[in-house]
Amino acid sequence: MDKVVEAVEEVKKEWGEAYAKTQEHIKAIEEYGKSREEKNSLPRLNGLAQDGLALLNSLQFKLDLLAPELPAIDSVESAKSLLESRKTQSQNWS
């Protein structure tokens, strides 16, 4: 497998993991104060969510750089489509 393709696949995998974690942190912020037991403080949850958003932006940037270097035109178009989808997802949180 081409190194660029491998790098794109790794970024996709990292994105999925970071996206899921960030969603968890945002949900925890939304639920904060609704239960009697609070495991994390609100500032900590906010920091974790912001870190997650920063990581997603970084991964988005990596994918943006890698997409034009993919060997097949179909792969380039697919990566660009994925990039636009990811931009929309992360902007919904910002």
Q: State Rg.
A: 16 Å
Low-confidence stretches: none
Distance between the termini: 35 Å
How many H/I helices?
A: 3
The total of beta strands comes to 0
Strand content: under 5%
Q: Average the pLDDT over all residues and give the rounded result.
A: 83
Global structural class: mainly alpha
Counted up, domains total 1
The geometry reads as elongated
Report the biggest beta sheet as strand number plus sense, adding barrel if it closes: none
SSE series? HHH
- Which bin fits the share of residues in helices? over 70%
How would you characterize the overall build of this protein?
With 94 residues, the chain is an all-alpha fold. It has one domain (3-93). Helices cover 80% and strands 0% of the residues. The protein has three helices and no strands. Helix 1 (3-31) packs antiparallel against helix 2 and helix 2 (42-66) runs antiparallel to helix 3 (73-93). The longest helix is centred in the N-terminal third of the chain and has 29 residues, at 3-31. It is elongated, with a radius of gyration of 16 Å. The model has no long low-confidence stretch (mean pLDDT 83). InterPro entries: Sec20.
Keywords:
single chain, 94 residues, Sec20
